[in-house]
Design brief:
alpha/beta; 7 strands
């Protein structure tokens, strides 16, 4: 089932043709402060992502950079490993895949990563899990200069799109409504809530990058 669903054209259908745009926005953010336009340091990706986000991320790793990808489902990690090998995206032990729950990253020390990426993860989780996942993401992030990048749903401006997406959410994504009603900072740990954040929306406000 995972391999059947893991098709870029299917992800594009779900995201109304915006997958590549959102993927590239995330990657641009990860290498924003790099003079070489490469992703540097240690990056953590919380959960596997369908389509080719991780393959593109690996391609933009600088020679000394590393990427850790964690997911609670072993089959998702096996599928990602297959994709990385198929696309020749495994690079000299720069990529590590590990089976962890996003709410319990006990295999990683505090302040380990320069960057943490959450790509369409939070809308799939209830309030308490979302809060725990962000607390863990912030725990493993370096406090000085570390960057948390989140791509997810947002309340669209158009009443028509609100109606369309409400219909989809009721059937498939009931927790996504939370992201319409609250800023993501609500689920940040208290120590992070006062830090500077910047939100950019896409496709009439339907998606956000924080």
């Amino acid at each position: 089932m995972i391999r059947t669903l893991d098709r870029k054209f299917l992800v594009d259908i779900v995201l109304w043709g915006n997958f590549s745009r959102l993927r590239d926005a995330a990657l641009t953010e990860l290498c924003k402060f790099s003079s070489s336009n490469m992703i540097e340091g240690k990056t953590l990706q919380l959960s596997c992502v369908y389509a080719n986000l991780t393959e593109h991320l690996v391609e933009r790793l600088s020679p000394d950079a590393t990427l850790d990808v964690v997911d609670v489902v072993p089959a998702q990690l096996e599928n990602l490993e297959r994709k990385l090998h198929r696309s020749n995206s495994i690079k000299n032990n720069q990529v590590t895949l590990s089976c962890y729950d996003a709410i319990d990253l006990d295999g990683f020390d505090d302040e380990t990563f320069d960057q943490v990426l959450l790509f369409f993860l939070l809308h799939e989780t209830p309030d308490d899990v979302r809060r725990k996942a962000l607390t863990e993401a912030c725990r493993v992030l370096r406090p000085n200069g570390g960057k948390l990048t989140i791509i997810d749903y947002h309340r669209p401006k158009s009443k028509l799109w609100q109606f369309i997406m409400s219909t989809m959410y009721r059937i498939y994504e009931p927790f996504a409504y939370d992201l319409w009603d609250h800023d993501l900072q609500q689920w940040f740990p208290e120590s992070m809530r006062e830090k500077e954040t910047k939100k950019v929306t896409f496709f009439g406000g339907l998606y956000q990058k924080v």
